[in-house]
Amino acid sequence: MAAHRTLTARELNRATLARQGLLERQTMTPAAMIEQMVGIHAQIPNSPYIGLWTRLQKFERYDLARLIEGREVVKAAMMRGTLHLFTADDYLRVRGTIQFSLDQSFATITRGRGDFDVAKIVAEARQFIGDEPRTFAEITSHFEALMPDTDIGAIRHTIRTQIPLIQVANGSTWSYPGNPKFALAEQWLKRPIPLEEANLRELFTRYLRAFGPATIADMQQWSAMTKLKEAIAPFKADLVVYKDEAGKEYLDVPEMPMLDGESPAPVRFLPELDNLLVCHSTRIGVVSTAYRARIYPKNGRLAATILTDGLVRGVWRIEKSKKAVKLMIEPFEAIMSDDQHALHEEGERLIRFIGAAEGVGDENAAVEWVKAK
């Protein structure tokens, strides 16, 4: 199929930012935004709250907390085996397709760890967790006593990938504790989990609506599935094909509009491990090559970042004491005065949002700048 046209780096940038709700805050509900993003990254408890705050108009902490409390939104291991928030309905739609990725992860991580009976582990874990929700510390102790000669890491990964589990919310500030318990998904949702229902076409079409235009490598990075070129071939003819300025091929769904690369992009604060920065293979149109090592550290904990003109230009962090909370902004380079002012104003709104959740009044919530390095 011939390429539809060539896209500049800025056009790719603006297209993805628009689909992510980062060019203009959206009026949709938190549940609708979570579904638009095909789940929101939730390894860090407060990250989905901040991720929704930066994408939605008039978002308050309780808007998401009540959905979690009502089991309308759940936290579970999904793409790349990492924790995401999904609406309950979307979890049921997607979980069967994601099992392909989890099976590949299971095969890779357990290879060479000795023989073990997967069916026996799954049956025992389902019984143990089905009796009551368990922490993984409790699960580990149980299996160390029951199967002392079996690699405990292999057991844990078997349970994480082969049994649909939901993290149990506890009503804390950001809904989940540091040492959470896990429940069987069908018990938590009171509905069966249709693992036999897989739809790669629907999954990757939705990915493109949320993150596109994108390459095959981008889709593999997001899903942790391999050999997607062959999997996508049957429906590639229904997609639009673009090229970037280096000749690399990008896929997209036909109905999605392309924006002018000069469309304005407001300043934004992204939380740690934000979807925008973990769902492409390499997107230098968002993160400069010069800053990648500072954004993607070797420990895998992606920094909370600031965007100006659609690009990552620095990081931010929260410093807390008993009575005060500060938002520290650390730019990577000199930032234009207009953007500095906009970042300060946006930062003040963010720190008030975080402070209110943490029980800190506006008078004790402040924004400070760290000198650019």
Please give a quick description of this structure:
The protein is of the alpha+beta class and 373 residues long. It has 15 helices and 14 strands. Among the domains are: 23-189, no CATH class; 287-369, no CATH class.
3D structure, described in words:
There is one protein chain. The protein has 373 residues and is of the alpha+beta class. Among the domains are: 23-189, no CATH class; 287-369, no CATH class. 41% of the residues lie in helices and 16% in strands. It has 15 helices and 14 strands. It has helices at residues 9-19, 30-36, 47-53, 61-69, 88-110, 118-131, 136-146, 152-162, 185-189, 200-211, 216-223, 228-232, 275-278, 292-295, 337-357, and strands at residues 6-7, 40-41, 73-77, 83-87, 134-135, 165-167, 181-184, 240-244, 249-252, 268-270, 305-308, 311-320, 325-331, 365-369. The strands form four sheets. It has a five-stranded mixed β-sheet with strand order 10-11-12-13-14. A three-stranded mixed β-sheet has the order 1-8-9. α5 (88-110) runs antiparallel to α8. It is globular.
Record the SSE blueprint.
Elements lengths: L5 E2 L1 H11 L10 H7 L3 E2 L5 H7 L7 H9 L3 E5 L5 E5 H23 L7 H14 L2 E2 H11 L5 H11 L2 E3 L13 E4 H5 L10 H12 L4 H8 L4 H5 L7 E5 L4 E4 L15 E3 L4 H4 L13 H4 L9 E4 L2 E10 L4 E7 L5 H21 L7 E5 L4
Parallel strand pairs: 1-8, 13-14
Antiparallel strand pairs: 2-4, 3-4, 5-7, 6-7, 8-9, 10-11, 11-12, 12-13
Helix pairs in contact: 5-8, 6-8
Beta-strand content estimate: 15-25%
What is the percent of helical residues? 40-55%
Task: Going across the biggest sheet, name each strand in turn.
Answer: 10-11-12-13-14
Backbone shape: globular
Count helical runs: 15
**From N to C, what is the helix and strand string?**
EHHEHHEEHHEHHEEHHHHEEEHHEEEHE
Structural class: alpha+beta
Number of strands: 14
Radius of gyration of CA atoms, rounded to a whole number: 21 Å
In angstroms, what separates the terminal alpha carbons?
A: 46 Å
Mean pLDDT: 92
Q: Largest sheet, if any? A: 5 strands, mixed
- Low-confidence parts, pLDDT < 50 over ≥5 residues? none
